[in-house]
Design brief:
The chain has about 290 residues and is mainly α. The chain contains 13 helices and 2 strands, in the order ααββααααααααααα.
Length: about 290
């Protein structure tokens, strides 16, 4: 009884002051977003304008555009940026190609026990460590790995560590972020829409194109934000399974100790790609319908 009496003035105070209540609710997350995340990006941007003293090899505060000029003029940086963009898009497209038929099967065809088993199989990679999954893919496609052993009787040899293996590895890493939203969206589509499409003479692929895809577009856009942005920032996949393939993260990691301002300037490239991607996704209206 005494506890309720003591807590009543605080609850009454918050009830009568909605602004204080709102501030108390948002104080902690806004401290994290503004004080940690945005401030870190701001400091990163400031560092991009600094320079390395050629005599002492020490980073000196200042203002120079040489780092950004190198990012947009050096062929190595341009090719790496375009290669990373292509890899991120390929991972996203491949994830959609896998997620849509799998989501249809799970939501509309598979029995309950198989649906649950597939849901566990999809989320299972999320339970393992990030580096463990990359090492597992490396072991599969190494010269003496499982893939070459399995295909040897057919005279087929794997591509080795290359860009296709990087794309496959990143798809394996981030596919759950695409599969789960797509499966949830397909599950919410009424079955009578499929029946109506069939009654009107549409076959399976036409039903998917005309009925399913338009309805699950918001889920695809939501999943693509994760697959695209996470693939852009990755570099360990390229390091362990890419062979000579270089991504933006690889070059940032290579410059972080030798030339931190250059690494900071190059870090703005994937951030810019993600911002542009989000702007395009927003203009489609899909994010508002989620």
């Amino acid at each position: 009884m005494s506890t309720a009496t003591e807590s009543r003035p605080i609850s009454t105070y918050l009830f009568r002051r909605p602004r204080v209540r709102l501030f108390s609710l948002l104080a902690l997350p806004m401290t994290w977003i503004v004080g940690v995340y945005i401030l870190s990006l701001f400091l990163l941007l400031i560092t991009a304008f600094w320079y390395v003293d050629p005599f002492t090899s020490l980073v000196r505060p200042g203002f120079t555009l040489d780092n950004f000029q190198a990012v947009f003029t050096e062929p190595a940086y341009i090719s790496t940026s375009l290669r990373t963009l292509w890899i991120a898009l390929a991972v996203t497209i491949l994830s959609v190609i896998f997620a849509v038929p799998l989501g249809l099967y799970m939501a509309k065809i598979a029995p309950a026990w198989l649906r649950n088993a597939l849901a566990v199989a999809i989320t299972l990679p999320l339970w393992a460590g990030y580096l463990v999954k990359i090492i597992a893919m490396r072991l599969v496609f190494t010269e003496e790995g499982f893939f070459n052993w399995l295909m040897a009787p057919f005279g087929i040899k794997g591509p080795g560590f290359s860009m296709p293996i990087v794309i496959l590895t990143l798809t394996y890493l981030w596919f759950p972020y695409m599969a789960l939203p797509v499966y949830t969206a397909i599950r919410q589509i009424p079955t009578n829409l499929f029946d109506a499409s069939s009654d009107l003479g549409a076959r399976g692929f036409m039903t998917i194109y005309r009925v399913v895809i338009p309805l699950i577009t918001p889920a695809i856009i939501a999943g693509s934000v994760f697959t695209f942005s996470l693939s852009l920032g990755d570099y360990l996949a390229a390091r362990f399974t890419g062979g000579a393939t270089q991504m933006i993260g690889s070059m940032i990691a290579a410059n972080i100790n030798l030339n931190p301002p250059m690494a900071a300037a190059f870090s703005m490239v994937p951030i810019t790609f993600v911002v542009i991607y989000l702007m395009v996704a927003r203009r489609t209206g899909s994010l508002e319908r989620m």
